[in-house]
Specification:
Length: 468
């Protein structure tokens, strides 16, 4: 009996010593982990953080889609060491679970990343805070053409915030829309609509995941869209914009409806590489360069319709010789580009108009009018051209080493002359008005306004010598 009692006491003593050692080890690991987190918070952040928020002084714990958010300070508090209390409390709970043989529930996979102060939500609405970019997918039922510019206006998705009545918009040739960032689980509500759709199109549905755990799509065309912290999927630490889930976008589906056929002659064509709509990235992918959203097509100063596949069309075109112009900064780095063609319109529709790049546009391109029709036996004209010379005003002889700057709409183009090149040809010029500035060493520069017509245009520019 004595031996048995000794064994029981010895067993309990060994258990107590083991528990004490376990607590001590846990506390030391906790201090080490806390110190490492403090150092890590001051280290440069990674470029991209998946399933995250961004900031300096606090952390946010995000569960998978639909989970909750908890925040706590990362900065040490001088008066009370809260980290050590958490460590000891955690150790005691674990030991209690071991002694009582109660299983510890495994934690769900969490991601811990820095987040901004909650007050960022208030400043976002005034344009000074952070925003949430929600991906948007727009499609036409049956694979139809998507109108992105119609008579100088842009069809667009609009989210109107219910409590402030402030609208947030996205043109249909983009793939994301910015709204104020909401770091709370209580959702902001938005009324959803599509504005300035052309005749022949209607909105069939607008779907988005419900603001709840899990993934359940709801049609927000006839009910409010709810956006809370659950919509946040990723963030770039150095940027003021957070991102929604690329695989769960706002999905807008348009449908074609019958509409009266437009009267008059129709002109249709396409552009090559001028219309580039970005694609929603795959999970873990990169959105890349999105370019701009400005695009417009005109025929003799009148706007037409541009589609997402690069096609364009005009209705009710009168007979005559027309200049078709496409202006776009979509794709690439967002620089503005121009393409154009000369089109002969007689008494029937014109199809398959092909545009070619031009370096600049005439100053009066928006007020241009159709020119007189060429003879029936002539083929459609190509773009116009210039044949330029710079002459001495007194001798009317070509000047060596002269230059001419051609200015219209777009970047000016400068051409140079030499003894071996007294005449320069400038191709791919649209009819209209331009400013030509000529100059040379020892001469006074002079600017001339010219009107370019159809075909080749010989241009002689005279400049005077500097006074002695």
């Amino acid at each position: 009996m004595i031996i048995q009692g000794y064994r029981v006491v010895n067993s309990h003593l060994q258990s107590a010593i083991a528990a004490m050692l376990f607590v001590a080890a846990w506390v030391m690991i906790g201090y080490w982990q806390s110190d490492r987190d403090l150092h890590a918070s001051s280290a440069p952040p990674p470029e991209h953080i998946s399933t995250s928020l961004a900031a300096k002084n606090s952390i946010v714990v995000l569960t998978p889609f639909g989970g909750s958010i908890k925040t706590k300070s990362l900065l040490p508090t001088p008066a009370v060491n809260s980290e050590s209390k958490d460590v000891v409390a955690g150790a005691i709970q674990a030991i209690t679970a071991i002694v009582t043989a109660q299983p510890v529930e495994p934690a769900r996979a969490l991601v811990m990343v820095p987040t901004p102060p909650v007050q960022a939500r208030q400043t976002a609405e005034s344009g000074n805070g952070r925003t949430l970019a929600l991906f948007v997918s727009v499609q036409v039922e049956g694979g139809g053409r998507l109108p992105i510019s119609v008579n100088g206006r842009y069809p667009r998705l609009r989210l109107t915030k219910i409590d402030t009545n402030i609208p947030y918009e996205m043109r249909l040739n983009s793939v994301f829309i910015d709204v104020p960032l909401n770091l709370e689980t209580r959702p902001d509500e938005y009324k959803v609509s599509v504005e300035d759709l052309p005749d022949g199109y209607s909105v069939k549905s607008i779907t988005y995941p419900a603001d709840e755990p899990g993934v359940r799509l709801v049609d927000v065309k006839n009910q409010n869209l709810q956006i809370s912290s659950r919509a946040i999927n990723a963030a770039f630490r150095s940027a003021p914009r957070m991102w929604g889930a690329p695989d769960l976008p706002i999905t807008v589906t348009l449908s074609r409806i019958s509409s009266p056929a437009p009267a008059g002659i129709r002109v249709r064509g396409s552009s090559e590489g001028m219309i580039v709509i970005p694609r929603i990235p795959i999970l873990g992918g990169n959105l890349g360069s999105t370019g701009g959203t400005e695009v417009e097509v005109l025929i003799s100063g009148k706007s037409g319709t541009v589609y997402g596949n690069g096609e364009f069309e005009f209705d009710g075109v009168s007979p005559g010789l027309h200049s078709v112009i496409l202006i776009s900064n979509m794709g690439g780095n967002g620089e503005q580009h121009y393409a154009a063609a000369e089109v002969v319109v007689r008494d029937r529709d014109v199809e398959s108009v092909a545009l070619q790049p031009v370096p600049f546009l005439p100053k009066n391109y928006r007020s241009a009018r159709a020119l007189r029709l060429p003879a029936d036996d002539l083929p459609p004209p190509l773009l116009s051209s210039l044949t330029v010379r710079v002459l001495d005003e007194s001798t009317q002889q070509p000047i060596d080493s002269a230059y001419v700057t051609i200015s219209g709409v777009g970047a000016p183009t400068k051409i140079y002359f030499a003894t071996s090149m007294p005449v320069r040809n400038v191709p791919n010029v649209l009819p209209g008005e331009y400013d030509l500035t000529a100059g040379a060493y020892g001469y006074q520069s002079a600017t001339h306004t010219i009107t370019v017509g159809v075909g080749n245009n010989p241009i002689d520019l005279s400049i005077a010598r500097n006074p002695k």
